Queue: 3 jobs
Job 1
Amino acid sequence: MHIAVMMFSTDQTVAPAPLARMLADRGFEGMFLPDHSHIPASRRTPYPRGGDLPPEYYRTHDMFVGLAAATTAAPGLTIGTGVAVVPQHDPFYLAKAVASLDQLSGGRMVFGIGFGWNSDEITDHGVPFTQRREVTREKMLAVRSLWTEELASFAGEHVQFGPTYMWPKPLQQPGPPVVVGGAAGPKLFRHIAEYADGWAPIGPRTIRDGLPDLQRAFEAAGRDPKTIVLHAFDPRTEPSVVEYYASLGVERLVINIQPLGPDHLERRLDEMAGLNALVA
């Protein structure tokens, strides 16, 4: 199992390039960045973890710009999105940004995606919150077409375009691994089985209890359940938790850490570096 790190990199914390170098120097396999375009002042949507929305949500760097800086600063590092809120992105720019990053990183891009939880933010992008899953589905099917077909086209309810060219194609074919974040459920698993490669939830028990249903969804879609890619996002760093993830067959554990300045971040990463030996 690989261990990667995700942090909200903002204009008040360590920037993506030095963050990538810090991670590579300590033996971490990858770096993931989150995705928030803006935060509407209305704040009608409660923060899922309760309390006030943390200040870093308002100040995060653009995810794709940050990952480009990271892969330039630490070329051997896996880079990933944790997670891209697909309904908020234009499918052409989304396909091109991810394909470009996959090329620039030497095929080390992981495309984590989600449907989004902040209705204020999603609505500002012209997407009704109740339709975000179907919008995501069509955009991802369109992205797949742009990645794999020389002359791509798509005709859906939310996405339509005629024959078109788009390069570069991803270095990884038929595209970088697509893992979908979210809690277990039949609707989520149908989405994963249709257009993604795997699942990236929070919590090992979620994986343990939900994986059989995801495997059945793959079988129903005519796909081999053995090909399911498992990632996990978790802020916990206890060795027993890390080892449990590994025992479940998780390919990559992405540890979420608090946004920190240089001195505090170095100490935090030094404390975590020993986890890599648990899964080596």
Job 2
Amino acid sequence: MESLVKKFTQSSLALPLVALAVLLLFNAFFVDDFFKIEVMENGNLYGRPIDILYRASSLIILALGMTFVIATGGIDISVGAVVAISSATCCVMLGGNISGIPEHPFFVAILASLCVGIVAGIWNGTLVAKLKIQAMVATLILMTAGRGIAQLMTDGQIITVYYKPFAYIGGNIPGVMLPTAMIIALAMVILVLFINKRTSIGLMIQSVGINANAARYAGIKVTAVLFAVYIFSGFCAGTAGLIEGSLIRAADANNAGLNMEMDAILAVTLGGTLMVGGRYYIGGTIIGAITIQTLTTTMYAIGVSSDRLPAVKAIVILLIIVFQSEKFKEMYRNYKLKRLDTQLSGKKEVSNA
């Protein structure tokens, strides 16, 4: 039993699982019918657990891309703005016709939205990998300009899409119990796991994150790896943009993807991936994203307003940074050593007596 506890505490999944368990336990006692799941008349599942997984879908997708970026020692704070641009692209192409007839084919609008995310990733990758600009500064450019671009695309208006199939992306396909967003998120998880387990890309990303110069001497094309992870992050943001636009069936350049980059970074770090790069944990990222969404849902359930929620998340970020710091780890190791010395001293005194 003691060995199992030791293995669990040393696991990268320990922190996100404990955080999620604490939140679920809190909800079990203080939020009425939190775990209640019902089947609606249209056959769809309804309940807070389903809502958490549903709303976490976009965050999981964003966090998957962010995991690879952070694993290389970089960061992408532009993903929230890219979500807004992607959403605006699809909605503008489908148009706001009350008749519900799209101005462009639905498939073309989806493809264009995803391509916008890829182009954003190419832009970030060029600045970081090719021009060697610090990742925070490079992605800050698109973070700042992105919402302006989305505003220009929509003329500063909220464009409502009346084309019914568009609602299926963020809602439910008729006859399917689970929301489409959850299915898309699951497909992205499977894709990332395949890349991570069946190819050498995961090892290359870790090598670049640990020591880029050593990876270069080992024959790894560091520039190509950095380029690829930012493109994938942009693709994930484009996919999340489709979901976010479909949720409200409109393009809202001001609010689409707002602060989602912070939630994605928080999910990745909560999942055990260090901000300095190196080893990363896909399972931890997924659990971290679900934990962040559970925290958001819990805060709303107990009456915390949306303007106070960032303060709660800031405290969580602070705690994670403290727990991951070398100083804290050193203090914890010293505490364990002192405790072990005390136990050994106690056993010696008993044996001498």
Job 3
Amino acid sequence: MTCRDCGIGPYGAQPSGLFLCDQCGHLLDLDTAYFDPAEVVVVDTDGNLLHFLSPYACLKWMDDISDLPTGDWALAMQALAQFKRAAKELEAALRAGLPYSTPA
């Protein structure tokens, strides 16, 4: 997860329970930080803070994209870019071991 202040460094776990940006020194407290409800926040074995869009949210996003109107080249290219991004997010979540779940 990239630092919310400098946009460069990753956050690493600290003994205090906070997460420190390796680049600028910003401290992040998960108790006061906002994450999208569709995101899953984890700490890897190296102590780095990671976040993923849940597989369910990725698949829902893909379904929503399929409802975009057709016939407009610009909208079609935008939809394709969004679909590719959703697919990459889904792949990252599954590689991280998040359970696969489909929208109802």
